[in-house]
Amino acid sequence: MLFARANAQEEINDQSLRYQEQRMVFQQWDQNKFTPTSGFLGLNPYYWLTWGWFYPNYHKTDLRPLSATGPQTQRLALVGTMNSIDNSYKLQSDTVRNTALSQIANQSGAITDADPLWLLYYDDEFKPVLNYSMATILAGLSPQVSAKLISEGTYTWYTNELSRLKQRIQGAHTTDMDRGARIMAYFRLLQDYKKISGVWAIRTASAQSTLNMAAQQQKLQNGQVTITGWTPHTDVAIANKVLQHLQ
Questions:
Q1: In the chain, what is the straight-line distance between the N-terminal and C-terminal CA atoms, in Å?
Q2: Which of these, 64, 73, 69, 70, lies nearest to 20 by C-alpha position?
Q3: How far is residue 126's CA from residue 146's CA, in Å, rounded to a whole number?
Q4: pLDDT per residue over 164-202, tens digit each?
Q5: How many CA atoms lie within 13 A of 57 on its CB side?
């Protein structure tokens, strides 16, 4: 028990140290609280032993880190300024990022499958070109017409035109370009497809008509068709009516 009391720590309550701690940390820098004081006529030796080693005007110079001009206050102000600058840079970078993403979405050929106009219109319009085959091309045609188109080379011409048009469509669909230019390319390619499909329809109808005429002629030659209501006098009567109108 005696040993414990002898070695127990005691709280130090030194007024000079307390004042110095308060000055250096947070409280007002009060030069009147520099203890020990200089005494009468500055003859206090403890004052000179304590404060005589410091530079002149030490009492009058506010050295608190958190003073108005202290290093910590300046550091905090600098941190606040840097945060403001960082936020400004972040805002600018976000703006640049959003602009870049918008331009990428507007020009990139990697995401054109999600374009609303492609999904709602052009994808369906170009399916006969992008997914063509012999079955889809000759669908609805009789075997005779199909054979005639293939033998005459019309089918080969049409598939070659579709192949070239398909390459152009895929190029416009996957190449990086402005969305407006891409839509105009779709429009022109669709017009080209309509022209090609129109020619194919005309040649298909012509092949069907030729086959019908050949079949009719064959029936006439074989005597399978009887012409009724015609006599040589009929041609004479028609000629006379024409001459009467000309007079």
A1: 159
A2: 64
A3: 23
A4: 999 999 988 888 888 888 889 999 999 999 999 999 999
A5: 3
Q: In the numeric block, which tokens belong to residue 114?
A: 């999600």
Closest CA to 52 of 40, 44, 60, 63: 44
The predicted-structure confidence for 46-97, as pLDDT tens digits, reads as follows: 878 777 777 667 777 787 787 778 888 888 889 988 988 888 888 887 777 7
d(CA 203, CA 181): 33
What is the token pair recorded at 96? 């640049």
* Nearest residue to 207 via CA among 133, 170, 136, 154: 154
Contacts of 122 (CB under 8 A, 6+ apart): 186, 190
Can you give the pTM of this predicted structure? 0.52
Residues 179, 77: Cα–Cα separation, whole Å: 48
Q: Are 63 and 24 in contact (CB under 8 A)?
A: yes
CA atoms within 13 A on the CB side of 235: 2
